[in-house]
Every structure is written in structure tokens, then in C-alpha cells.
Amino acid sequence: MKYYGRKSLLVLATLIVFIGLWQAYVSVFHIPVQILPGPLLFLSKFLNIMAMGDMSTHIGLTLYEIFVGFLIGCVLGLLFGYLLAKSVLLERMFTPYIVLVQIAPKISIAPLFLLWFGLGATSKIALVMLVVFFPIMVNTIVGIRSVESNMQDLLHILKANRWQRFWTVEIPYSLPSIMSGVKVSTTYAITGAVIGEMIGAKAGLGYLVILGSETYDINLILTAVLILSVIGLVLYLLSNLLEKRLLRWHESQEVIM
Are 85 and 141 in contact (CB under 8 A)? Predict the structure, then answer.
């Protein structure tokens, strides 16, 4: 408890210092409020924007795109990762094409998805799924192939079937790597959704960023960015909590006091 208490105080102190530096910067250099408002002024504008009736719609739509795309991307990444890890032939066949799609700039792929799936949530879900798929797949391959040869020999001696190998050895050995991929993918999911909404959308937090840019409303931009950052932090903390629950036995979860 002392460890988490010190950690919370450190986070709070860092936030206070950041707000103080923010206020000092806009005051000392006389920054116009149209470019960067002070923290108190922004807080007032933030509350006014959040009180708007359609803010819940924008937030809900972005969350829907993130969660659905993230879930589908994770499932496909786990499935393809396992198949490619178990078959060298499949890996040689599909890996070059998967990597080719992955290295293509997502901002250049987003217009294609908009043409194929329209301005609705489907195109953003597809983009989120694409950016989540690769890190999950790669980490699954690494995890499955991390099973030690001695363990493989032991399973062979014990005549374990494929299901027993999968459930008792491959899953425990691959979970640390997979959870690392999940934590990385949470940030990618938000990026994918926002890129899709910024390229073309009727609603969503990314749409608000573009709307604020077009109307020179810095408060609207900062509000959307702040909400996206909070969503990203919550998703990361949830994935970290899931990792701690699933890997309580693993040495990586030892807390340094």
C-alpha cells in the first residue's frame, strides 16, 4: 500500500507542477487565449463543452469504434499468430503481405476504407482492426515459439496431445508476450480511430479535432485531445490490470518496494 501511495502522490505532484508551468508560460509570455488558454480558463470552457448535448454521442461513437475494432483485431491477431507460429509454410506465404500492409502509412489507407465502407463507424472499425492486428500477431508468434525445447521434449515423452500442449504449456509461455502486444495495441487502437475520424466522419472525437481546427476553436481541440488521452490511459490501466490478474505467477509482476 505504501508503494501505491507514493506512486499516486508522485503522479499528483507531477500534474500540479505541469499546471503551474502551463499557467506561468501563458502569463509570462502573454499567450493569446485563441492560441493557448490558461488552465482555469480552459477548465471553464471544458465544462461548457462537456455540457453540450451531443458530446456524449461523440465520445460514445469513438469508444464503440475503438472497442469493436480492438476486439476483432485481437481475435484475428491471436488466430493468425498461432497459425503462423505453428506452420513455417504459412508464415512464408503470408508474412510478406501482412508486413506490406502494416508498413503502409495508415493515413494513406484511411481514404480507401472510407471509399469501401463509407463515412460511418465501419470504416473506422476496420482501420482500428488493422492497426491492432499486427502487434498482437507478432507477439503471439514470439510467445508460442518461446516454449523451451526441453519442455517440448518433455511433452513428447509424456505423449501430450495438441490440446494439452496448447492449454498447459503454450498459453502460459506466450501470455507475457501477448499481453505486451495488447498493451501496445491499446494506444494504436485510439490512433486508428482518430485518424479515420479526421479523414472523414460525421461524429466522433477525431471529428471534433478537425472541427475545432476549421473553426479556430482551441478549447474544442484541447477538450477532444484530453478526452482521448484519458480514454487511452484508462485502456492502458485496464490492460495492465488484466496482465496482473493473468500473470500473477510470473516474475515480471513482482513489485519493487
Answer: yes
Angle (CA) 112-100-126 rounded to 5° is: 40
Residues of the chain with pLDDT under 70: 1-5, 149, 151-154, 249-257
Amino acid at 177: S
Query: Nearest 5°: CA angle at 132, between 131 and 138?
Result: 105
pLDDT for 256 equals 43
Q: What are phi and psi of 53, to 5 degrees?
A: -65, -25
Q: Grid coordinates standing for 159?
A: 505423449
CB 187 within 8 A of CB 240: no
Give the integer Cα–Cα distance in Å for 20 and 23.
Answer: 5
Contacts 24+ apart (CB under 8 A), 31-36: 33/218, 34/216, 34/218, 35/218, 36/218
Output the nine-digit C-alpha cell for 45. 470552457
Q: Output the pLDDT for position 26.
A: 93
DSSP of the chain: -HHHHHHHHHHHHHHHHHHHHHHHHHHHTT--TTT---HHHHHHHHHHHHTSTTHHHHHHHHHHHHHHHHHHHHHHHHHHHHHHHH-HHHHHHHHHHHHHHHHS-HHHHHHHHHHHH-SSHHHHHHHHHHHHHHHHHHHHHHHHTTS-HHHHHHHHHTT--HHHHIIIIIHHHHHHHHHHHHHHHHHHHHHHHHHHHHHS-SSSHHHHHHHHHHTT-HHHHHHHHHHHHHHHHHHHHHHHHHHHHHTTTSGGGPPP-
